[in-house]
Amino acid sequence: MKRPDPRLAAYRDLLLAAPVSVTSIREPVRAWTVHVEDALAAVPIVEKLAPARIADVGSGGGSPGIPIALVTGIAVDLVEATGVKCDFLRRCVAALDAPCDVVHDRSEHLARGGGRDAYDLVLARALAPPPVAVELCLPLARVGGHVLLWTAETEPGALAQAAAAMGGEHAETVEAGPNRRLELLRKLTATPERFPRRPGMAAKHPLVRVRSRP
After folding, report:
1. Closest C-alpha among 125, 152, 168, 171 to residue 210
2. What are the tens digits of pLDDT across the range 69-98?
3. Strand runs (DSSP E) across 26-75, as ranges?
4. pTM of whole model > 0.70?
5. Beta strands 54-57; 76-80: pairing state
6. 3-state secondary structure at position 100
7. How many Cβ atoms from other residues are within 10 Å of residue 185's Cβ?
8. Which residues contact 179 (CB under 8 A, 6 or more apart)?
9. Planar angle of CA 63, 33, 70, nearest 5 degrees
């Protein structure tokens, strides 16, 4: 059985010492479960897709991007809008020799520039409700590329509707543990130029509203 990359434990330890603004988790076992194991649940999907270029949108403390980069060796752009978190990500990348670049930007801005249609795979783990995350991520994917969302519970119809508006489709749902799903979207055609809307609009006025449960 292959031993896990020791850099994964080193990454966990960096998180434990990180500012509370990066993560509030201070218990080693929980930090491993939340930030490492949850990210690595997607490795079989990533390896099957074999992307050359990945973006982790709203990377925060670096999960899922850093663990996936360490295990697969695939380059990941860690897209993060908050300066303090970007500083932490840069320290992690340097300390771990991870194949990652830190991109200090909002996804809406990135998708209006060099990031549009640029990535084979776009990841988002704790970015926004799934239909909102679709608008923030799918414009970054190339036609034929994919978006992978970590979710707790989703309405497949709402996800498919949001994906269709961005030129994509809901391709697959993978059960990744109790109350944890990985939702895979495929980009079929170019995203309409009006998307993504200006920063904050996707969250404030989502294209698809998920119905609350009674």
Report:
1. 152
2. 999 999 999 999 999 999 999 999 999 999
3. 54-57
4. yes
5. parallel
6. strand
7. 27
8. 152, 153
9. 45
